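FORM 7B - TANDEM STRUCTURE REPORT

SECTION 1: FIRST PROTEIN
SEQUENCE AND TOKENS:
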Amino acid sequence: MTHTSQHIIFTIIIVALFNCFGCSGSSNSGGEPPCTNCIPVPYVAHSLEGSWRGELHLSGTDGETTLDNVGFRFDNLGNALEWLIPYEVITVNGKLDVSEPNEISGTIYTAHISDSAQNIQENSTMTVHGNFTSETSLSIHVSCEFTRSDGSRGSYTVTGTLNKEGNTYSTTDLEGTWQNTVTVEADGEAHIESSVLTIDSQGNIVDNVTQNADFGPYSGEFGSVSINGEFTGTFTFSMTDADGNKTDHKQTITCKLISADYIEYSGDGSSTNSAGNTDFYTVTGNLQRIREYSASDLEGSWLGNIILRYPDGSNHVETGGFSFDGKGNVTEWLGVLPEDFVSISGTLSVSQSGKISGTLYGVNRVHDTETDNSTFDISGSFLSKTSINVYVDAAYSRSNGAEGTYTATGALDKTE
């Protein structure tokens, strides 16, 4: 292998220096042909991020109807954040998963006021199946079972198409830490490497973490990010191999924010050695935003509307939550009747990606004369630094000898 080829291979690491993304398999608005260097990216959970609305047809217990401009809003993990309907929504919780090439499946739990005149609350479990028909369109089929506060229950199906509402971007959306995966292709050979970039609010790279440090000073600039997330970058840098041979590199990159947490990029580069010989290569890749969490992010009080579901099919909504210290230890049990809470103990752990798990143990008074000893097996994830999604498997034993189980789901917001 020539020194020049070695230098080109080393650029795998160096390209990670640059926040240069944006490649799509379709023609752009200017009518230019598709990018020939792009690697198709399969649909994944972050493809759901954003708000989706459309016309949906409902058929079931209450007859048939069509609702227009309704849907859901999801985060970059597929968690349902908002139910977009013309009714008073009490809570929405659940998650959709995406499998290759474009299949969607999952369960969403909701509670809303279905009859405002009678103040009737409807709690629903929606089993969702569907698929991406494009990056901005979903075809869905939903099987829904519901119970109402007036004692009635029923089911219905939902079919239709949801379209993604447009996102708007600016250069400040680049700020943060990103995991970079890049492919460099030269002389018919492709190599994949990764690195971690930190970018400031002006789009400047302020830090990068790679395994190699055989590159010299680099310089470059980004164009401003357009409202639809497109931008470019031009960069120069040098590399020196173990034998002291130096090459100078130039790169021009086309970039696009696919979502707030995912970027695609492609471009061309050249390397020139001390003898004046120049080789050319292409780069393609993606960046995924790194959101780092720890148990300390639980510190404070978390409160929200929780749907409790029992083995007999009944369910209801309660307002509740917990307080934690900076190590994830629970310090307080929050709810509408805090005087009924005798004690709470246990610890939750938090992974770097924001996954929450652990077991809490509680004692509370029931019907004034009885007490429940409960075990709460909790799983969930951070939706943001101030919102968490939780799923609870609960089991209790009552002082009168009764025992039981139930599940609880909901989103808790940080209140302090």
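SECTION 2: SECOND PROTEIN
SEQUENCE AND TOKENS:
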Amino acid sequence: MKDRAVVSFEGFTTCRRWSSLAAPTALLLAVTLWPSTAAAQADPDSVRHRNDCRLAEQIVTTGNPAPRLEWAASQIQFCGEEAVGTLIPEMIRTLAHGTDPDDPRFSVYSKGRFLHDGRIFDALMDVAGDRSALREARVYAFEMLLTIRSPIRRPAEGFRSGLDPETGFPLEACSGRPAGGRPVAFEEGAVPLPLDFEERIKALARRVYDDETEHDVVRGAAFCAA
């Protein structure tokens, strides 16, 4: 029997079947493994750690060298308050107003999945609700907001499938469960999420979904995040 996902929105529920849960943008969803214990326990005063952080910040900021972006996105959260509180939210907002929807630096958006920090949350909310932001950036933001709201759910094709013109629902499943059925592991940042973060995510998603002047793909991503 094929797997099924149940998606619901304001009283409407529908079941969707899917054959693959992999989202089409590999780099964003490739950073799904929690960094190793050794990395998490790195000595912040060591020369190697400082050098690693300088390199990670350079790669995340410039996108070069591109083959090391996945490593840099995982390393950056261990590089102190400035990197977490300033660089990551700044990059989230900057990329949203860039010119390349395929910029591999979008992998930094995945930090919202692993590090629940109020500043990263605010940046993701800003991008998701910003009509002037790149469409892909808004979809990425809604994907991460879903995983913040529900760590047991993994974004699926529904975030990019657009809407069925007859039902108004996404054409594909919104989410599945991570491998092994376990919630995604995350850490709490120095700035906690707002107490009403779930309500804020749902309210933003409903506002975007209800706006028929928004692009169908963005509306579908909003539906899936709600």
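SECTION 3: OBSERVATIONS ON SECOND PROTEIN
The radius of gyration is 17 Å.
The chain has ten helices and six strands.

SECTION 4: SIGNATURE
Preparer initials: ____
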